[in-house]
Amino acid sequence: GPVASYAGVDTPEAPFPGNTGANKLNDTTTPALISWAGNNSSHRLSFIGENHNSHTVSFVYNDGCSPETTNFSGEGVSGNAIQLSWTPFGGQKVMVVVNDTDNFTAPQQIRYHAGDTLATGERVLVANSNDIHALCTGLQPLTTYYFRLYTMLTDTTYTTGLPCAATTLCHNLGYPFKETFQMAEGSTFNCWHQDTTQGVHWQKQRERINIFLSLVSDPGTQTGSALMQISPLNLDGGGNLVLLLDVRNPLRFDTINDTTVLPLLDTLIVKYRTSDMYQWQTLYMLFSDIPDWKQFAIPLPSVSNDYLIALDGHFGGQTLSVDNVRVTTVHLVSVTTDGHGAVYPGSELNSVAVPDGESITFNIVPDNGYELSQIFVDYQPQPRRNPFTLTTVSEPHVLYVTFAQTLSLNNPSHSDISLYPNPANTVVNVSVNNGQVAQYSLYDMSGHFVANGNIAPGTPAQIKVQSLAAGVYYIKVVGHDFKTTEKIVVTKR
């Protein structure tokens, strides 16, 4: 029957108690058919339920609405657990049962307790409960389980029940976790679950020898989201746990009129949840316009020894790509200089996260007219090598680099070195205008080596850049008695 709502119990419209001034309900003041205001309700009152949280009172009549709980649903949260939730009706209590088949028998008119077994083998998960969710544990991985939720009318009578089914995730993964998509087979990747919305989905892509996941849209679809969820990671606890992601979002633009050019950006939302949490929590939001692959180190809060990780990608018109997903312990290496050069990686964020036990190599790029002077690690002098490598990092470090002005009177000025065209999209010509033989080395913004070669006197060297990603690169030119570093900008047509 219909459900009616009233502003308060002491109003003329409310069937109980009406406008008599009464403020409580009990067996002696609540009639079967007549309200306290003296009106005939024409329905026998059968249930009164009170919800302390919402401060509401629900009345149910014999031929009116059934006091049935609603919105009963389940979701696998690990390889052995399913989270159940529901919306209660007033103050009515519930009983939930679980079975490995979709066979259920109506409860008998007896009072059940958690752990009891019904006629067709279903097990009582919770009984006589006022909760709004429950965690069903001790299950098998990648298995579908069936549930029934019964609203309790009395201690021994029940409604017909609401059904739901849910599937557990795959086996729990160990720590430290690393997902290398190059090693994955088929269209699925270990324990990732893909939830496609409005035609937007993740798919496996290949670029040269690299394989990664990209968020793409079906033709004609421009909005939507997709979820990639990994089953809980069994971690050993402790601090400095981070999620390492390699992310790339190729920069593209959309012209909406003859004069306005806007970037088409995707969004990546990184979320986490533990197996006993009811809702996802946002760890990181990335509004990505980075042209090249870049690693993001996202700290995990120390709230549990297991996590679910989700990547929620919102499609905006270009391709958002993710590779090399890792959960591990890292150590931060602080990177600073005296201001006359840069160190890559590290100069962009003044620090770099290094997984425990791994090594990291830094490329040192002096400014024009300067050269490497000294390298300090934790304020202790180190051999002057470029590139410089920290091996087997097991604790945080501070890397500090100083530079000195070159003393040669033959250092070339900017006019002594020719780079053209710059910006470029196919070829950059490099020449030294002082008649010397020189060598060049090309690095990206992260300090990774890209290419090198020789420059003959009077003859420019050609550097092919059409296969490089758009962005800024550093070219280091070294001659007999000089060295200099310049920027090259690579664009795409």
Characterize the structure shown.
The protein is an all-beta fold and 493 residues long. It is built from no helices and 36 strands. Strands 10, 12, 13, 15, 20, 22, 24, 26, 27 and 29 form a 10-stranded mixed β-sheet that branches. Strands 11-14-21-18-19 form a 5-stranded antiparallel β-sheet, with no helix packed on it.
Descriptive keywords:
five-stranded antiparallel β-sheet; 36 strands; mainly beta; single chain; 493 residues
Structural class: mainly beta
Distance between the termini: 66 Å
Main sheet makeup: 10 strands, mixed
Helix content: under 10%
Q: How many helices does DSSP assign?
A: 0
Mean pLDDT: 78
Residue share in β-strands: over 45%
Oligomer: single chain
> Which stretches are low in confidence, meaning pLDDT under 50 for 5 or more residues running?
26-44, 408-414
The coarse overall form would be: elongated
Q: What's this, in brief?
A:
By secondary structure, the protein is an all-beta fold.
